[in-house]
């Protein structure tokens, strides 16, 4: 298997749904990122072998959104493209597809993209109204149409909100916040602990922006129709404090819950594009890669505890590479919810959890929070579900390189009961 390099990457600002990029379609967010990546990296567009895009809320007017983005970004029409979907790990799935193509020798240069416009989630016509509309279209005479109108199903008029349906597991019937409440109870995670992690996430993100650590990673967009520049993430709060967080009421269990809007990730719009190549191709470009994508893994688990997915996928990485936390310099552990991130850290350190879930394997212990999400996580930066996977891998490599190199692990939980992890190395 050939070495797979991550040569370059760029992302749009991550902005709260309905805010400064709220009117931008996923196609255009992806186009911004891919076009900027090609320009900044200096790669000849004709030498790109494939574009792979991860996207969750796939638009009906841009089926195979990867192909639409490639053409809109002015990649040559001879370059094929395809779209992948693994819920919150769709961006990591795009990276995994690129890795497989390059490592197997089937490609030399692949663009992996994660993109999501959560602002653009559809409102869905209810089945009863859809059936009524279908019959209306089939009515041939004015009389038949008027008679059908008399049977208009008022109770079916209100649409179903696509983002709520998409964030609810159809098997367990729990939404993602309810699964976080399950973990808070299972691991005895207090409201105070969740709010403390949320505050840390916001303050770290604010400090990273203030210090310029995000500058080279985030491009400026000029969304239509006003074309006003958007140059920064807008979800983090530099003034976050426990007093303010403590005033927020639980959202998913209003009586006994502890998961609030303040200690959960935000609904977000954004895109992140990454250029992966073989070692030989990177040398031909005359560029030193950001690093190497060494391994990736996916794991499955009970959907009602989906937030623990990173433990299942990361353990595969540890086993295959004979690693423990002492061999990992930095970690990006996506904060879908503060409770979920804390639960993962506790599970990594729990012998009873490993005895039950990992066939008695020795737990690796808890990672050091000083190495985890050092520039903030999704509670502060947001979680555009299709794009987060590419973001955490790109940011991990940029931060490792800023510190002189090292080994990093990027991991996230996946709706439906899965986990995804990527092992990278920067020199």
Please explain how this structure is put together:
The chain is 37% helix and 18% strand. By secondary structure, the protein is an alpha+beta fold. The chain has a domain of 280 residues: Peroxisomal Thiolase, Chain A, domain 1 (3-Layer(aba) Sandwich). Strands 1, 2, 3, 4, 5, 8, 9, 10, 11 and 12 form a 10-stranded mixed β-sheet that branches. Strands 6-7 form a two-stranded antiparallel sheet.
CATH topology (level 3) name of one domain: Peroxisomal Thiolase, Chain A, domain 1
Named at the architecture level, the CATH assignment of one domain is 3-Layer(aba) Sandwich
From the alpha carbons, calculate the radius of gyration and give it in angstroms: 22 Å
The string of secondary-structure elements, in order, is EEHEHEHEEHHEHHHHEHEHEHHHHEE
How widely separated are the two ends? 20 Å
The biggest beta sheet is recorded as: 10 strands, mixed
Question: Any idea what the shape is?
Answer: globular
What structural category do the secondary elements indicate? alpha+beta
Mean pLDDT: 96
Q: β content, as a range?
A: 15-25%
Number of strands: 12
Fourth-level CATH superfamily of one domain: Thiolase/Chalcone synthase
CATH class of one domain: Alpha Beta
Fraction of residues in H or I helices: 25-40%
